[in-house]
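Course assignment 3, question 2. Fill in each field.
Student: A.L.
Task: Predict the tertiary structure for the chain below.
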Amino acid sequence: MPQLDPAPALLLIDLQQGIRDLDRPRNNPQAEQRIGQLLAYWRAHEWPRVHIRHVSRQADSVFAPGQPGALFQEALAPMAEEPVFDKNVTDAFCHSGLERWLHVRGIRRLVIVGVASENSVEATARSASCLGFAVQVVADACYTFAKSDYCGRPRSAEEVHDMAMANLRDEYAEVLATSALLGCARA
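Answer field:
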């Protein structure tokens, strides 16, 4: 009997209180709700879930160890059996042991959700693709914040997010919506 491909791992990136509490314009106000839907679906099917936590090296950061901002958002917090990988750079694979954890379990497919779209989500998806993983990024289960571009022009959170998704689409990942992913998963 042929070996069946394991279910994809759901990577939940930087869903911490400090990022949720930022007082800046953001996109996808329903992202946490969609992430919760996906997390519940993965848990119900007992598929692999991996939580990525940003731990800052700067003592005054909201993401420094011991700060409330470093804690996971309660509704999306890992269960005791769900692994947590800490990172202190944008890429969840860099110096974290994540790649080895996935390889040991034969996991070759990843579904990525979280924050920030153009930062840790994009960096992690690019690395995952370069490492040979099949990657899906759930666009409406990711979000980011307004910021200025390289030339100093203000860009809305939606523009920043859309460009991040465009950067990933086709070359590094399949970019899709929660409804499309859950529709495929149920088929």
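Instructor remarks: The mean pLDDT is 93. The first strand starts at residue 9 and ends at 13.
Grade: pending
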